[in-house]
Amino acid sequence: MSQEGCSVPKKHLPSTVYEDVTELPPSRTARNRVKRAAHSAGLAVEDQLEPSLGVDEARSSRFLGVEGATVSFGQGDARIWPLRGVSVTFQRGTLSLVMGPSGSGKTTLLSMLGCLLSPDEGSVFVDDVLVNQLSETEKTAIRQKKIGFVFQAFRLFHSLSAIDNVALGFELRDPKQSQRLEMARQLLDQFGLGDKCNQEPNELSPGERQRVAVARALAGDPPILLADEPTASLDAQAGRNICQILRNQVDEHGRTVVVVSHDPRWRKFADRTITLCDGQVEQGGRNL
């Protein structure tokens, strides 16, 4: 995720499964190496999910959110508090917009919802599970199976074609999925990229790259989609396309979408807007 002011120093954010591997050469060896690593990662996650995550004891009646969450980094005079006692929940099947100035805690909140960061105090619940009570491997499994991520910088594998990038998302969530290329093609077709399947990211426009990234995030049908400044690098038309695509995920598929953004265009697509300031919720309510 993009580093936002001093909210979450990058060194504190664990690596996700989708790294921006720009240094990989566009060779068959590089492609195969990425795919083998993805397959191994997917199998490791699957092992954590069978027979269950052992999360029955951690069940919560709340779908997604944080309660009394406080996060700090550093020590002594250098200590900062990105979030202070924040409580906010997100209902199933809604699109929520989180806004606020840089350093207000937006990315910190998104990182907790994505099981990338644990609070010093308070609780985090994802898909009705209190993730604070889970091990790191169990959190990783929930992240892989339940959550899709969309980033400002796309974070596509530059050595893979559009269809292989999306297929990789399917493979990570279900290594046994034998139809992943066909399913990846269907997703790209839905987003108007059927004729771009074999092109690599550097052959695509920024808007097209972001649509590929959204398709990859949706591979495996996760119920939750977290987006960090998904339109910040796009022009007006491409940005509106992404807004509409994520809105459709709520209306047509019942997903829960949380968008962190400075872009005011999101207000007309969101069910509600939450404003953070100095690590606290300043305003939250339904959009008209």
In short:
The chain is an alpha/beta fold.
Essential attributes:
7 helices, Rossmann fold, alpha/beta, 288 residues, 4-stranded antiparallel beta sheet
Protein topology:
Blueprint: H1 28-49, E1 64-73, E2 80-90, E3 95-99, H2 106-113, E4 121-126, E5 129-130, H3 136-146, E6 147-151, H4 162-173, H5 180-190, H6 206-218, E7 224-228, H7 236-253, E8 256-260, E9 272-277, E10 280-286
Parallel strand pairs: 3-8, 3-9, 6-7, 7-8
Antiparallel strand pairs: 1-2, 1-4, 4-5, 9-10
Helix pairs in contact: 1-3, 1-4, 4-5, 4-6, 6-7
* The CATH class: Alpha Beta
- Domains (count): 1
Radius of gyration: 18 Å
CATH topology: Rossmann fold
CATH architecture title: 3-Layer(aba) Sandwich
Low-confidence stretches: 1-26, 37-57
Largest beta-sheet characterization: 6 strands, mixed
Strand order of the largest sheet: 6-7-8-3-9-10
Describe the 3D structure:
With 288 residues, the protein is α/β, with parallel strands linked by helices. It has one domain: P-loop containing nucleotide triphosphate hydrolases (Rossmann fold, 3-Layer(aba) Sandwich), CATH 3.40.50.300. The protein has seven helices and ten strands. It has helices at 28-49, 106-113, 136-146, 162-173, 180-190, 206-218, 236-253, and strands spanning 64-73, 80-90, 95-99, 121-126, 129-130, 147-151, 224-228, 256-260, 272-277, 280-286. The strands form two sheets. The chain has a six-stranded mixed beta sheet with strand order 6-7-8-3-9-10, with helices on both faces. A four-stranded antiparallel beta sheet has the order 2-1-4-5, covered by helices on one side. It is globular. It starts with 27 loop residues before the first helix and ends with a strand.
